[in-house]
Amino acid sequence: MLTLQTAIRPRKTGRIGVALAGGGPLGAFYELGALQALTDCVEGLELDDLHAYAGVSSGAILAASLANGLTPIDIGRIAISNDSGHEPAHPGLFLQPAIREYARRIAGLPGIIWDATNQFLRAPLSQSIAELLAPFAAAMPAGMLDSAPFERYLRRLFDSGGMTNDFRKLRRRLYIVATNLNTGKAAVFGAPGLDHVPVSRAIQASTALPGLYSPVEIDGETYADGALLRTMHASVVLEAGADLLFGINPLVPFDASAGGRRQRRIDLTDHGLPVVLGQTLRSLVQSRMQVGVAAYKDRFPRAEILLLEPDRADRRMFFSNMFRYSDRRRLVDHAYQSTRRDLLRCSDELAPLLARHGLRLSPEALKDPARSFQAALTLQRNHDRRVVRELSATLDRVEAMLAGGRQKPRTVSRKGAAG
Fold first, then answer.
1. pTM for the structure as a whole
2. Which of 37, 78, 102, 238 could form a disulfide with 300 if both were Cys (CB 3.0 to 4.6 A apart)?
3. Is 238's pLDDT higher than 50?
4. From residue 77, how far is each of 82, 85, 152, 156, 390 by CA, in Å?
5. Residue 249: closest CA among 312, 176, 295, 301
6. Does the structure show a pLDDT above 70 at 379?
7. Is 268 helix (H, G, I), strand (E, B) or coil?
8. For the purposes of burial, counting CB atoms within 10 Å of the CB of 406, is it exposed (0-12), middle (13-18) or buried (19 or more)?
9. Which residue would you say has higher pLDDT here, 187 or 382?
10. Which residues contact 27 (CB under 8 A, 6 or more apart)?
C-alpha cells in the first residue's frame, strides 16, 4: 500500500531522507525487501547516501546500516545469506535470557517478603488477596531477554569495514529515537546533546520493547522502545531539511474481510491471545501513523512524502513466523514484490513527484518478472566473486613480473670483462 503526500510548492534542494518505523524482526525484514525494491526501481536513488535517516526500534538497525554506507543487499548478505565477509547475525543474538535482571530481582525478594509479612501482621483481617500479593510485583523482571549481546554485535559491526559507531563521524545525518521511561518523552540520539552516545547503544535503547527486553540505562537515564510514543518519527528527518521523505511502516492491522469471496473469512480470536494482542498493537500503530502523517502537511508544507505499508489483506505478512530463516527469506522477497507492484500501480501519480527531485521510475525493473531480492543477492555475490578473481589474477601477474625482474641475470660485456 503506497500513500503519497504532495506539496503545492515543493522544495527542490535534492535533500532526500528515509524514516523507518519499528515492528520487530518481522518489520525489519519487510522494510529490507521494500528498500531493495526502491533501489532497483527508482533510478537516481542511492539509499546508502541520502541527506538524513531516522529509525525507531527495529527500523533503527536498518537506518544506522544505511547511514554507514551499507546497501540493502549488503544488509541482506549479513542477516540472510551470511556471506558478506562480516560476522553474521543469527537469531540467538536476540534470545539471550536477562540473567542479571533475574538475579537482581531474586536478590531483592527476601526484603519484599519481609515487608509483605509485616504489612499482613499489622492488619491480618482487613486485606484482600490482591493487596497481599501487590508487593510481589516488584519482584518481576523488567524484561525477559537481554539485548546486550546484540549491542556488542552491532558495536563490532560498525567498528569494522570503514564504518563508524559514532554519530559525529558519520557523513550522513542519523537519528535514532527511544523513549525516556522516567519522563515519558522522546529521546533523539544523534541530535546535539545525545550524539556522544554510541550508535549501537542508541539502537539497543530504541529496540528495548517493554516486557520483552530490559530497559537500557544511558548516562543515568532509562530508555525503552522508541515506538511507545510515535510510530515513525519522520519529523526529525523533515526538520533536518529533507524535501522528499521515503517512509516505511511495516505494521498495519489485518483486514480479514478484505480477501474477497475466494478466501475463507478468518476470525482472529481463533488464533489465541498473541494474535489478538498483535492486531490491537497494529491498530494503535496505524491510527497514530495516519494522524502523524496528516499533521506533516501543515508542519512541513513544502516537503513531499512517499509512505510504504503492507496491504491490509496481506495474510503472509500477518501470519509469518519470523523465527525460521526460511520465513525470513520468503518475507523479504514478498515485501520486495509487493513494493514493486505498489510502485507500478501508482506509477502515473508517482512519476511527476519523483521527477521534481531528480528521480525516475525504471519501467524495466518494475515489469521484469525475473527480479527478486534473492536474485539481487545472487547477482551481487557473483559480482564480488568475479572482482576477487580478477584482482587475484592481476596480483598474480604483477608478482610474476616482479619475480621475473628479480631473476633476470646480469649480462656483462666482454669488453668490460677484459678491461
1. 0.81
2. 238
3. yes
4. 5, 9, 19, 17, 22
5. 312
6. yes
7. helix
8. exposed
9. 187
10. 21, 57, 58, 59, 250, 251
